[in-house]
């Protein structure tokens, strides 16, 4: 079965990751509420994390912890995991900043739709 | 094999919840659902043999981020319906609720 | 070398300590920020010193490991320079933001530290993921800094920035992980050699990396967020973003360049060029200072980006050459833009915000809405001279005028592109530069408040000027250094002589040196400055006299001598007359420099110096804002054409144009470039305004002397430089006869149109301006004959035009000074009040009209003789018509001013001051001498022309003989003088106690008039003539250029409609940009 | 040396004397002919002499300043100079004048000398009509110069020289060698230009202000007027001689010159009697129209 062969070769982590990225982008581009955009951003970030980790994903490997017995060959690649850890932290920082600006924009008397915050143009 | 099926199931769930997150009008629901997506992602990380990442994602991505969101929503006095105050409306002029 | 890790550690520690230190007071925490900045600066300087003294780039591993096990930092020449730039800009920006940082929470200072560190990290790291981390650190720091002082516009744009930045960082992460997947490493140096990145998958991975970097570099159209940030952020931060941040990102791009394949390079170059063009076009329509600077920023960064990629794509030169050019642009942009943003901050602090809200000086003249109408007024306060000088330096640097680094970079880029025949690229780059020059200079022009009107209080910028001043001084210093030592050119050994600096031509710096000294002495009284300027010109002439061959000697008399005359004329008014003398001296010496230049670069440098200094001189005039702007835009446009032409060869110590090149279009471009300066018909629209609105003595200098520089340019273009005594022209290489015939018609049309326009002017200086244009037309016509007689006529006409146009402008300057108006119909009957001026004008118009026996007839005789001998019969007839038309305005000139009825309110008018009369007397003497002894002038001219062409003209006794006829100037003078004396004698004999009559002792229409207005027929003097032939000269050229300008403006206006202000639209732009880029890459692959 | 110079000056004075008298008689006789055409008796032929003598004898009582005086001086010097730069009789040392000063171009431009000076002097009179007249005159001049220049160019092409003596020399040998025979088109253009140049009808609007009894002639009275009248005679003669030289084969002796110039002038007067006056913008358009085309045609014919 050709379809099955393709399915087997598909990375089961990267696919939802990519889909989450697209959904996140959709949210960013299509929702006008500042907070909703921030939510979409965090979904985008989750998707990116999944994609990153999918690269290190090799079937049947264990966590990359050197405990003396496990062979290095049977561990997953530790580098993407390190990257994801960093990315998660950075993502939180960005999300928090985004939210704080959203709060300040809204509490300053403006709306929470991005459309009303477009005075600077042309 | 079980592992993969679990990952696939989690992936499908994540995508589904994510779409719902964007579609729903309630900000509270969407924040909680995006926390759910993160939680599922951390499950996937765990299944992939990355327990430390999974832990971080669960605590930060799912937990802390959601808390920050909820705090921000309450600080901003943002109505739950995301369209509620699409335009800055002066106090008292809250007739346009967006819902029929 | 200092390990950069210590500095990172120190920065982080400082950032963490800040909240604690803040307890001691904000002063202490800010001191910490400066300290860290200084530490970076010191480290960068120490690295640079070590590297320049022969050190090699050094890698620093982390945690005791090197790549691939650990992150590696590299300190090389460029990295050190980059860190130096970032630290320097950081310190300047911090100083500019000082007040705001003191008021805002401590987080602001922390974020600033992180931004500084992040940018340095971006420059130093060799690890792709680490690059991401530093990019994010600097981005987050920027986000928080934009909003740190809680202004709503800034918050809005920060939010937009975060949307775009978030998408970019997601792209970068995806790119990085796939680079790792296919290249198996995150280390840059290993990745460059990684085979896995060569394939399609690797390409795609690299694409994501690249796309993220490009988005951060603010490409068109995915840069709306950046423009908003530039507009709204604190100017100090905007400086940081435009200067430091862009530099760091460009260095990051440069580091990654070896990874990229052709397809990537194509998209970098294409995107960069598109950004450059679109940014400048949109900037031309911009009303707010900082947003305009933002447009200029994205454009400049686009150009630097494109140059980086183009260099590799077209192999423009060695890597060093490329870095020199791109580095020159970046350095130029970095300093200039930092300075300008800081300057705008200083404006804001000084309260120059009235016209355009938060944004400083409104830059657009249109009054299409209420805001524009209120803003169309001049700035309510005048900038102090120092502030003006700083602003001027920064803008001129940005525009790429000499002597700033951008000038040298642009020259070398154009030269390199021309060597590879990439003409369309040159066109794009220079076109964009011209638009940028237009709006930047318009802005600068607005900063100069009108003089003469109600006294305006001076705006003192105080400490806020320090940062801009530092940037301006650094720019000037670096520019002069690159010019003198060829810092940029010397980096490329292959380029050799063609890219040499001005090292061999120290004289070309004379205008700058003298102007600098005189500007420093500008507080001295006017007469002393005038004497100093005169001394400088005289000293220059004395020192360079042995470097001038015959042709150049003749022009030196017109250019340097004319400059001297008008410097004397500048003494006509008491007082300091700030800025006038330095500029007059600078223009004069730059004219001398044009004569002296021996290399292409030298010639172009001198040409640009001349354009620039004369523009400043024009701008000094009272109502000169618009005319000066069109003057400089046309001047620069012409200079760019000239640059392309020169870059294609010719005018070098090496020899003339390559064989056959004279008919080629680079030569034509150079020719057109010079014709712009000459004011040829169609390219003349700058001319009347500039001549009319400049100070009166400046107009004279422009018309009498500076236009001769264009004439000299024509000769220099065709002649090889040649050593004195051996002029030669490779006749075989001269372009087809059609070219010269066409040039002749251009000259003829110019002559006719100039004369006709002059007829209908009411403004005396406009009349003279148009007349100048017409006379230059004859010179071009004669030049185009390309034979001995023609060139003799051309040189003779040029010298004569110098003589009588100097006389006219000097006399008219006196009249305007005494009468206080430029409208001829408001004058009249001045002959009795200003007899010497009248005599000057009389002699000048007799000479100009070509009536024997004065020198002007020699010019006409030479012109018609050579035209008919050459067989240009129709041209001769039209020229005859044109010089007939000249009679009309010349008569008008003398009649309306000096003859007829005196105006009642001008009864107290006195003769012009001695400073004007003395040069007039001198010139009259010269004119008479040359009229009686035409040989004095013709001998040297014939000497030159008969060395270039086979002689057809020659002297036989006192008679000049052509194949067609002869002219004996001396005999003509004697006969005329004799006849005149005879007639005068008859008159004198018959004069018997006549009675002088009073003004109104006439009858007019049967009544005695009482008011001069009713009898002085002067307004719309030649109206019947306009009815008859006015159709010949409707202002078609003006309309054409207005259309061109309108078209460019409309394109810019359409482009900037992309920037809707909606953050989501901007995010969509980013996404679409990446998608389109990917598709383009697919096509190129 | 001195003798040579004195001889030349003496010859020139004789030549000048001859042309002055001839010019005055010409004006007188033409006035009489015009009168006959119009059915009047007319003035005696020597009337111009009487006018000049009367004017010169009078005391001039009004002056508007130096330039006012210099106007007639310029004017007369212009007329005399123009004549002196033209060789009047071919091959005659007496009537060679100072034609070695310059060629045809010198003569063409020296014509402006007097006009410019006169314009200046009249303007100094402070009367608006003189400025109006000058503005019209100059405007018309730019126009009629075009066909004239074209015909001169045609002559230059044909004889490959601008030297008047050489041009005359090339036309010797019978009627068929004259320019009027070899290139009649160019001559037609030149003659039309001549109508404008001598400001006869229909191109006389230029001098219209003089007809209004308060124009420049009123301001210029007595001996100043005398100078202007003298100049009129000399200048007319000079122009006629120039035309004769360029287009009608020159003259080898004084009688031939008299006959030829008389006939040329006759054409002028006849046209003037037959046409009404044009406005100045009309006459400009006229000269830039058909005569210019004819002139171009003349150039083309000369080129063939």
Structural class of chain B: mainly alpha
Please indicate the count of domains of chain B.
1
What's the helix count of chain B? 3
Largest sheet of chain B: none
Anisotropy-based shape of chain C: elongated
Rg of chain C, rounded, reads: 32 Å
Proportion in β-strands of chain C:
under 5%
> Helix and strand succession of chain B?
HHH
What is the average per-residue confidence, as pLDDT of chain C, rounded to a whole number? 85
* Helix share bin of chain C: 55-70%
Task: Count every helix of chain C, treating DSSP H or I runs of 4 or more residues as helices.
Answer: 41
Biggest interface pair, residues each?
C-D, 76 and 82 residues
Instruction: Briefly note the structural class of the backbone of chain C.
Output: mainly alpha
Distance N to C terminus of chain C: 43 Å
Q: Note poorly predicted spans of chain B.
A: 86-100
Query: What percent of the residues of chain B sit in helical stretches (DSSP H or I)?
Result: 55-70%
How is the biggest beta sheet of chain C arranged? 3 strands, antiparallel
Shape, per Cα inertia axes of chain B: flat
What is the number of beta strands of chain C? 8
Unreliable stretches of chain C:
354-379, 490-499, 721-728
Outline the structure in words.
Chain A has a single domain (8-58, 73-112), classed as Helix Hairpins (Orthogonal Bundle). Chain A contains 4 helices and no strands. Chain A is 64% helix and 0% strand. Chain A has helices at 2-9, 14-30, 34-56, 78-107. Chain B has 100 residues and is an all-alpha fold. In chain B, helix 1 runs antiparallel to helix 2 (27-47) and helix 2 (27-47) runs antiparallel to helix 3. The longest helix of chain B is centred in the middle third of the chain and has 26 residues, at 51-76. Chain B is flat and about 45 Å long. The termini of chain B are far apart. Chain C has 1085 residues and is an all-alpha fold. Among the domains of chain C are: 261-366 and 385-501, no CATH class; 502-735, no CATH class; 749-987, no CATH class. Chain C is 69% helix and 2% strand. In chain C, the strands form 3 sheets. Chain C has a 3-stranded antiparallel beta sheet with strand order 5-6-7. In chain C, strand 5 and strand 6 form a beta hairpin. The longest helix of chain C is centred in the first third of the chain and has 32 residues, at 152-183. The two termini of chain C are 43 Å apart. With 304 residues, chain D is mainly α. Chain D has one domain. Chain D has helices spanning 2-37, 47-57, 66-84, 104-124, 128-159, 164-170, 179-182, 184-197, 208-211, 216-219, 222-247, 254-274, 280-288, 290-303; one strand at 62-63. In chain D, helix 3 runs parallel beside helix 11, helix 5 runs parallel beside helix 13 and helix 5 (128-159) runs parallel beside helix 14. The radius of gyration of chain D is 19 Å and the shape is globular. The chains are: A mainly alpha (122), B mainly alpha (100), C mainly alpha (1085), D mainly alpha (304). Chains C and D meet through helix 32, helix 33, helix 34, strand 7 and helix 37 of C and strand 1, helix 3, helix 4, helix 5 and helix 11 of D. Strand 8 (995-996) of chain C pairs parallel with strand 1 (62-63) of chain D.
């Amino acid at each position: 079965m050709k379809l099955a062969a393709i399915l087997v070769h598909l990375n089961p982590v990267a696919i939802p990751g990519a889909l989450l990225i697209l959904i996140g982008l959709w949210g960013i581009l299509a929702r006008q509420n500042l907070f909703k955009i921030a939510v979409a951003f965090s979904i985008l970030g989750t998707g990116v994390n999944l994609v990153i980790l999918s690269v290190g994903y090799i079937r049947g490997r264990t966590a990359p912890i050197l405990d003396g017995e496990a062979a290095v060959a049977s561990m997953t690649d530790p580098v993407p995991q390190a990257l994801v850890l960093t990315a998660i932290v950075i993502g939180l920082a960005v999300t928090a900043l985004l939210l704080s600006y959203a709060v300040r924009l809204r509490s300053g008397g403006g709306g929470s739709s991005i459309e009303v915050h477009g005075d600077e143009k042309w | 094999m079980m592992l993969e099926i679990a990952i696939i199931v989690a992936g499908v769930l994540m995508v589904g919840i994510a779409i719902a997150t964007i579609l729903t009008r309630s900000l509270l629901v969407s924040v909680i659902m995006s926390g759910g997506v993160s939680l599922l992602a951390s499950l996937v990380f765990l299944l992939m043999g990355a327990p430390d990442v999974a832990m971080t994602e669960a605590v930060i991505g799912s937990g802390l981020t959601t808390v920050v969101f909820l705090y921000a929503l309450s600080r901003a006095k943002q109505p739950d319906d995301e369209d509620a105050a699409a335009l800055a409306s002066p106090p008292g002029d809250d007739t346009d609720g967006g819902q029929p | 070398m200092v390990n950069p890790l210590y500095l990172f550690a120190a920065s982080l520690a400082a950032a963490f300590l800040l909240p604690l230190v803040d307890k001691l007071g904000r002063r202490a925490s800010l001191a910490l920020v400066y300290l860290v900045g200084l530490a970076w600066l010191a480290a960068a300087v120490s690295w640079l010193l070590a590297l320049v003294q022969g050190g090699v780039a050094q890698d620093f591993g982390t945690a005791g490991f090197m790549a691939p096990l650990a992150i590696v930092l590299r300190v090389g020449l460029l990295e050190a320079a980059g860190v130096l730039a970032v630290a320097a800009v950081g310190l300047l920006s911090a100083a500019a933001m000082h007040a705001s940082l003191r008021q805002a929470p401590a987080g602001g200072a922390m974020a600033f530290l992180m931004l500084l560190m992040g940018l340095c990290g971006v420059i130093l790291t060799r690890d792709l993921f680490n690059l991401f981390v530093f990019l994010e650190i600097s981005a987050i720091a920027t986000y928080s800094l934009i909003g740190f002082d809680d202004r709503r516009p800034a918050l809005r744009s920060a939010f937009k920035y975060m949307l775009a930045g978030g998408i970019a960082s997601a792209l970068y992460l995806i790119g990085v992980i796939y680079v790792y997947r296919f290249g198996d490493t995150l280390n840059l140096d290993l990745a460059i050699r990684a085979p896995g990145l060569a394939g399609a998958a690797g390409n795609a991975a690299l694409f994501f990396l690249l796309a993220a970097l490009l988005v951060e570099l603010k490409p068109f159209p995915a840069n709306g967020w950046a423009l908003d940030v530039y507009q709204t952020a604190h100017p100090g931060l905007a400086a940081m973003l435009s200067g430091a941040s862009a530099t760091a990102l460009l260095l990051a791009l440069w580091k990654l360049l070896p990874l990229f394949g052709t397809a990537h390079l194509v998209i970098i170059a294409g995107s960069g060029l598109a950004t450059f063009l679109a940014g400048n076009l949109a900037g031309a329509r911009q009303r707010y200072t900082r947003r305009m600077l933002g447009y200029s920023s994205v454009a400049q960064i686009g150009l630097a980006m494109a140059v980086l990629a183009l260099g590799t794509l077209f192999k423009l030169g060695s890597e060093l050459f490329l870095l020199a050019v791109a580095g020159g642009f970046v350095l130029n942009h970095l300093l200039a833009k930092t300075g300008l943003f800081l300057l705008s901050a200083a404006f804001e602090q000084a309260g120059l915000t009235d016209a355009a809200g938060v944004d400083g000086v409104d830059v657009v003249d249109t009054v299409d809405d209420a805001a524009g109408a209120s803003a169309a007024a001049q700035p309510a306060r005048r900038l102090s001279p120092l502030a003006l000088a700083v602003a001027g330096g920064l803008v001129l640097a940005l525009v790429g005028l000499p002597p700033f680094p951008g000038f040298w970079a642009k020259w070398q880029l154009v030269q390199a592109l021309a060597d590879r025949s990439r003409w369309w690229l040159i066109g794009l780059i220079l076109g964009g530069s011209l638009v940028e020059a237009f709006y930047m200079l318009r802005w600068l022009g607005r900063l100069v408040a009108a003089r003469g009107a109600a006294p305006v209080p001076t705006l003192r910028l105080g400490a806020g000027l320090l940062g801009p001043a530092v940037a301006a001084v650094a720019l000037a210093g670096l520019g002069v250094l690159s010019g003198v030592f060829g810092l940029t050119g010397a980096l490329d050994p292959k380029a050799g002589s063609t890219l040499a600096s001005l090292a061999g031509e120290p004289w070309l710096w004379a205008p700058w040196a003298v102007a600098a000294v005189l500007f420093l002495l500008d507080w001295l009284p006017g007469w002393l400055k005038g004497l100093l300027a005169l001394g400088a010109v005289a000293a220059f002439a004395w020192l360079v006299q042995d470097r001038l061959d015959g042709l150049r000697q003749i022009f030196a008399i017109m250019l340097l001598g004319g400059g001297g005359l008008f410097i004397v004329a500048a003494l006509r008014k008491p007082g300091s007359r700030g800025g006038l003398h330095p500029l007059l001296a600078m223009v004069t010496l730059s004219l001398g420099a044009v004569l002296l230049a021996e290399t292409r670069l030298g010639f172009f440098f001198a040409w640009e110096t001349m354009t620039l200094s004369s523009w400043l001189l024009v701008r000094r005039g009272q109502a000169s804002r618009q005319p000066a702007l069109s003057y400089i835009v046309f001047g620069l446009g012409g200079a760019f054409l000239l640059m392309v032409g020169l870059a294609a060869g010719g005018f070098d110590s090496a020899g003339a144009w390559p064989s056959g090149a004279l008919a080629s279009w680079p030569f034509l471009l150079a020719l057109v470039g010079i014709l712009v300066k000459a004011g040829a018909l169609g390219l003349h629209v700058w001319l009347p305004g500039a001549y009319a609105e400049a100070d009166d003595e400046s107009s004279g200098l422009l018309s009498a002397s500076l236009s001769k520089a264009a004439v000299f340019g024509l000769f220099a273009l065709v002649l090889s430089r040649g050593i004195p005594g051996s002029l030669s022209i490779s006749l075989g290489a001269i372009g087809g006869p059609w070219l010269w015939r066409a040039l002749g018609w251009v000259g003829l049309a110019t002559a006719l149109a100039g004369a006709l326009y002059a007829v209908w002017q009411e403004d005396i200086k406009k009349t003279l301006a148009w007349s100048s244009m017409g006379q230059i037309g004859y010179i071009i016509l004669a030049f185009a004959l390309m034979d001995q007689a023609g060139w003799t006529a051309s040189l003779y006409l040029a010298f004569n035009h110098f003589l009588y146009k100097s006389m006219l402008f000097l006399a008219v300057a006196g009249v305007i000074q005494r009468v206080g108006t430029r409208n001829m119909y408001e004058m009249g009957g001045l002959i009795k009040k200003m007899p010497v001026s009248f005599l000057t004008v009389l002699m000048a118009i007799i000479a100009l009209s070509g009536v024997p026996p004065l020198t002007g007839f020699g010019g006409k005789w030479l012109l018609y003789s050579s035209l008919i001998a050459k067989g240009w019969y129709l041209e001769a007839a039209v020229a005859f018509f044109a010089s007939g038309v000249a009679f009309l305005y010349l008569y008008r000139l003398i009649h309306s001013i000096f003859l007829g009825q005196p105006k009642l309110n001008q009864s107290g008018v006195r003769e012009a001051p001695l400073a004007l009369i003395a040069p007039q007397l001198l010139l009259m003497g010269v004119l008479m001498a040359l009229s009686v002894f035409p040989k004095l002038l013709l001998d040297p001219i014939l000497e030159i022309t008969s060395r270039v062409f086979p002689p057809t003209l020659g002297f036989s006794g006192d008679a000049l003989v052509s194949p067609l006829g002869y002219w004996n100037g001396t005999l003509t003078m004697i006969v005329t003088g004799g006849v005149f004396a005879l007639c005068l004698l008859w008159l004198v004999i018959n004069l018997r106690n006549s009675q002088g009559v009073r003004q109104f002792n006439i009858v007019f229409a049967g009544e005695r008039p009482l008011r001069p207005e009713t009898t002085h027929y002067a307004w719309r003097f030649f109206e019947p003539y306009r009815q008859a032939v006015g159709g010949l000269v409707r202002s078609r050229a003006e309309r054409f250029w207005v259309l061109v300008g309108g078209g460019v403006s409309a394109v810019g206006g359409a482009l900037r409609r992309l920037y809707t202000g909606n953050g989501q639209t901007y995010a969509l732009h980013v996404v679409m940009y990446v998608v389109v880029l990917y598709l383009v890459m697919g096509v190129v692959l | 040396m001195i003798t040579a110079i004195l001889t030349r000056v003496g010859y020139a004075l004789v030549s000048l004397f001859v042309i002055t008298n001839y010019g005055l008689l010409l004006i007188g006789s033409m006035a009489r002919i015009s009168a006959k055409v119009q059915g009047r008796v007319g003035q005696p032929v020597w009337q111009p002499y009487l006018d000049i003598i009367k004017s010169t004898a009078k005391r001039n009582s009004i002056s508007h300043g130096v330039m006012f005086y210099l106007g007639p001086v310029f004017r007369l010097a212009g007329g005399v100079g123009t004549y002196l730069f033209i060789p009047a009789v071919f091959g005659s040392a007496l009537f060679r004048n100072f034609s070695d000063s310059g060629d045809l171009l010198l003569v063409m431009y020296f014509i402006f000398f007097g006009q410019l000076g006169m314009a200046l002097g009249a303007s100094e009179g402070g009367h608006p009509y003189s400025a109006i007249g000058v503005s019209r005159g100059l405007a018309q001049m730019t126009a009629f110069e075009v066909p004239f220049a074209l015909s001169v160019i045609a002559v230059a092409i044909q004889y490959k020289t601008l030297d008047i003596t050489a041009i005359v020399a090339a036309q010797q040998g019978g009627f068929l060698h004259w320019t009027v025979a070899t290139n009649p088109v160019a001559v037609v253009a030149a003659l039309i230009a001549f109508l404008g140049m001598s400001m006869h009808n229909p191109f006389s609007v230029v001098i219209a202000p003089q007809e209004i009894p308060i124009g420049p002639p009123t301001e210029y009275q007595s001996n100043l007027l005398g100078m202007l009248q003298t100049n009129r005679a000399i200048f007319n003669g000079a122009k006629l001689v120039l035309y004769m030289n360029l287009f009608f084969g020159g003259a080898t002796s004084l009688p031939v010159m008299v006959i030829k110039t008389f006939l040329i002038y006759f054409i002028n007067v006849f046209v003037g009697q037959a046409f009404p006056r044009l406005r100045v913008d009309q006459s400009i358009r006229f000269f830039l129209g058909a005569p210019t085309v004819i002139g171009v045609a003349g150039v083309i014919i000369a080129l063939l």
